[in-house]
Structure formats: C-alpha cells, structure tokens
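FOLDING PROBLEM:
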Amino acid sequence: GYKERSAKKAYQEIQALITKHNPQMLVCRDNSINGANLIEFCNLFEHFKKPWVAMGRADLSNSEIIALQKAGCRFIYFGLESGSDRVLNNFNKGIRSKQISEFIKTLHDRGIMPAPSCIVGAPDENRDDFEKTKHFILEHQKYLDIINVYPLRQTPGSDFTTMKIKANRQTQNRLNEMIEEFVTAGLRVFVGEQSAEYVLFKKVYPGPANY
C-alpha cells in the first residue's frame, strides 16, 4: 500500500528546495509516481522549467504520459520483470507484456526514455519464459537506451520465502547468457539499479550537475 500526498504540498516543498539549492535536474525517488494526482502534479511541475526523472509502473495512461512530457520528465525507470505473461502473472504484476510494449513505445514517441529492468531466475521460470524475456527486449531494442537486469533474490517476508519456494538453480547461468546476448546485440546492460540510474542521469544532464 501507499499514502498519496497532496500535489500542491509536494509542489511547494520542491519549490522551496529549488530556491535553496538550484539543481540542474530533479530526481523523484518515490517507488512510483502513479496515482490519482499525477496529472495535477505535472501541471504544477511545468512551472519549474527543469528536467526531471522518476520511477513508475508500466500502466500509465496516454494522458498521464503527455502530462509528464509537458512537465519536463526525461525518463521513467520501471519494472519490466519478464517478457513472459506466465511469469508476470506469478509475480502478481497486474500488467501483461502487450501493455508494457505499448507503454515503452508511447514513452519513446513522447521523448521520454523508457528505462526497464528485468528479473532473471524466478523460481518457476522455465526456458521458454527466459527466451520470451530475451526476445521481448531485443524486439524493443530500438526504443531503449539501456536495460537493467537483476538476478532474483528472495528477501525475508516475500511470498516466495513464506511459501518456501527455492530459487531457480539456473539463475546465474541465465543472467550470464542474457548479458552476453544483449551486449552482442549492441545494448548497454547494467546489473543493479544504482549503476543504471547514474548512466541515465548523465544522459539527461551530461555536465557536472547537482541533483
């Protein structure tokens, strides 16, 4: 769950921070910008005239993406997780691969970089699921600047841990295979969120920057 704050209040706080620090760009560190007040927030954000980046889910509407574009949003970091609908369903993702495909293309068409991450080695991921994920990324390569990949790690309290489902034994092998194939295809591949974000930040603002 989450608590949605007032768009006006968030705008006022950001305005105060900009006045004090004058950053060249802004980074929204929330886990997701999705919410009922996103368009209102974007309308207010337009006044800053500064580039910014954020995380989101791949179910933003066209009107929300247009609002993000007008507000100066430059990339959206989001969880693709898998190109297999079976794995997405087992993750309780609530989004199918076709919707993610349309999301990537719409962001790209609006001048917002899609920055997806995918997970390798779900406990029930079979070879077909893995091939579908690779195919999905390569099929959308022209829309992507980078791809971030994660080996699945089961955290305490997660559904997989609670249900005592063991990790996929092929995780490391498949991670290595995916990286090699994507690099060979000309994609920039990162393992881990921080390294991927750093490269994306430098893409948005190449010079020395205060974030």
Observations:
- Strands lie at 26-27, 52-55, 73-81, 113-120, 146-151, 188-191.
- The CA atoms of residues 120 and 174 lie 7 Å apart.
